[in-house]
Amino acid sequence: VVVQRFIGGFIARRLKLSMFIGRLTNTFFALAYALSPNVYGIYVSQLLAGLANSINNVAYFSYLVDTAEDRRAAIGTYSVLMGVGALIGGEAGGITYEVLERAYGVGVLRPMFLYVAIARAAAASLFLTL
Question: How many domains does the chain fold into?
């Protein structure tokens, strides 16, 4: 709430850049789990979640409202795809961990989170092409 006015102004001026930054901030969580030597790094990354989510939610819906011919269909499709992606991503990640943990032990968790961070950063770069 404190930075909402600033974020709203930034998004209005630089919509595509804010979409990229919003997605890029999602790498912080995975990086914290992969690299943090203790739980405090993870706590700090969760504090950044509020900033990241405020950018993401406002920027994506602004982009949809500004560019879509059928706004209701676009917002509905976006919401469904985000829900399905969260469901499939969570299940795929859990299954992948189960398979790799059996083969390599619990130590595979940090490399998996590092991979997730790199994949999220690569996906964020796609927003620069809009």
Answer: 1
The tokens for 105 are: 């032990």
The mean pLDDT of the chain is: 88
Alpha-carbon distances of 51 from 11, 31, 82, rounded to whole Å: 13, 16, 19
56-110 confidence digits (pLDDT tens): 878 888 888 888 999 999 999 999 998 999 999 999 999 999 999 999 999 999 9
**pTM of the shown model:** 0.78
φ and ψ at residue 38, rounded to 5 degrees: -150, 180
- 11, 13, 17, 21 alpha-carbon torsion, rounded to 10°: -30
**Domain housing 31:** 4-129
pLDDT of residue 1: 63
